[in-house]
Design a protein that fits this description.
Elements (H helix, E strand, L loop, with lengths): L8 E3 L16 E2 L10 H20 L3 E2 L3 E5 L5 H13 L6 E4 H7 L7 E5 L3 E3 L1 H14 L3 E3 L4 E7 L2 E6 L2 E5 L2 E3 L5 H7 L7 E12 L10 E4 L11 E4 L5 E4 L3 E2 L13 H8 L2 H9 L1 H12 L1 H9 L10 E13 L10 E5 L2 E6 L8 H16 L2
Parallel strand pairs: 1-8, 4-14, 12-20
Antiparallel strand pairs: 2-7, 3-7, 4-6, 5-6, 9-10, 10-11, 13-16, 13-17, 13-18, 14-15, 15-16, 19-20
């Protein structure tokens, strides 16, 4: 440990850990294919997947390195696919392969497309079990995880922070804000100006009926359109069985809005009074409208899936779960593309850590520990 004398207390607002982004994603282990070389995301995904696999092996957590296909469904997508291959190579991924149509079908017999990248290092995992194991590690190391501890107030008292929560009042020399969907609000409690804001995007999934799951063996992803900020719908085999299809990306009407009917007036006001949100819509009007249409139309959702696996039919899809992505947006409407760390005296804020945040979580933890130690030991 960098600071062996440190006493760690984790304040968790829910009754158990992993209730939001970490516990409601599709459980993919991302290897670092998509991210700009040299970025936090690139470095921490590449390092993080190795750390996460080792952690799962050491702690008996269900996981599997099954590999992934990223597919170009039309010739116009091949330059973007080549760019992905170049990024992955620069990021240090091992064993990447370019595939033609016949080679693709040897791996995924029902896939459509003209070319693909085989990413052998990708996999799937049970992130809820990862969270439980991390809690055990913290408590075994002398730390505490306090649940039901929603942070209501933060104030500085001489050299310490006083933290008012639903589970009591805590004092700390140093605070680390990793509050996900609420990280911008927690940072504001310390007196910081909210220069960016978390906008919640709900990702909705379907599952494939058991008798049709043979259509997908592992992970099938599209070549992302560089004009748009999200990856697009894809197929994922789940670690405990089943195939998931999705997600789309639509504005959630609550930061924890996992259903279309979940509405928070406070969260809506936070979104609609932020100029960056309206500038985002002006940047991506067609994408935003299409994602909204697809949210209400199984036919359109299925049509997007058929670009990857043409044999998928509407009748094969049953409603699945949903997750909410805590996406930071700049005042000019740009999505924050990288993990965002903000240091201040006595505090560290992690203000953007969506995918591949779960894969990279142990690497993010190393970065947090290093930054804390640099301040505390200075």
């Amino acid at each position: 440990m960098r600071t062996p004398e440190a006493r760690i207390t984790v304040l968790e607002k829910e009754d158990r850990v992993g209730r939001h982004q970490t516990g409601n994603n599709s459980g993919v282990l991302h290897s670092g294919l998509y991210y700009k070389p040299g970025s936090f995301k690139a470095r921490m995904a590449v390092t993080g997947i190795r750390q996460m696999v080792a952690f799962c092996q050491e702690n008996g957590i269900p996981h599997e390195i099954c590999g992934k296909l990223v597919v170009a469904t039309k010739p116009a997508q091949i330059p973007a696919l080549d760019e992905l291959f170049d990024r992955g190579t620069k990021n240090g991924l091992q064993g990447l392969r370019r595939l033609g149509r016949e080679e693709m079908r040897e791996i995924e017999p029902h896939v459509a497309g003209v070319a693909a990248i085989r990413v052998p290092q990708e996999g799937i995992v049970d992130y809820a079990a990862v969270c439980e194991a991390i809690v055990r590690k913290i408590t075994e190391g002398g730390g505490k995880v306090v649940t039901g501890a929603r942070v209501a107030k933060l104030r500085r008292a001489t050299s310490q922070w006083v933290i008012d929560t639903g589970a009591g009042v805590f004092e700390s020399d140093f605070i680390v804000n990793c509050a996900g969907l609420h990280c911008d609000r927690v940072s504001a409690l310390t007196g910081r100006r909210r220069e960016l804001r978390i906008i919640p995007f709900r990702g909705e999934y379907y599952k494939i009926r058991p008798e049709r799951q043979y259509l997908v063996r592992n992970l099938i992803y599209p070549t992302p359109d560089p004009r748009f900020p999200f990856l697009g719908v894809h197929f994922t085999r789940l670690i405990h069985g089943g195939i998931e299809a999705g997600p789309n990306a639509v504005l959630a009407f609550a930061r924890e809005g996992y259903r279309k009917t979940d509405i928070s007036l406070r969260d809506l006001a936070d979104t609609f009074t932020y100029s960056g949100f309206w500038r985002f819509l002006r940047r991506y009007p067609s994408m935003s409208f299409h994602e909204l249409q697809r949210s209400f139309s199984r036919r359109l959702f299925c049509k997007s899936l058929q670009e990857l696996v043409p044999e998928i039919h509407e009748s094969d899809l049953v409603p699945g779960g949903a997750g909410v992505r805590a996406q930071a947006i700049e005042p000019d409407g740009a999505l924050v593309q990288d993990f965002r760390f903000v240091d201040e005296p006595g505090a560290l804020h992690l203000l953007n850590a969506p995918s591949p945040g779960a894969t990279a979580s142990l690497a993010i933890g190393d970065e947090v520990a290093a930054r804390v130690a640099e301040q505390v030991c200075a």
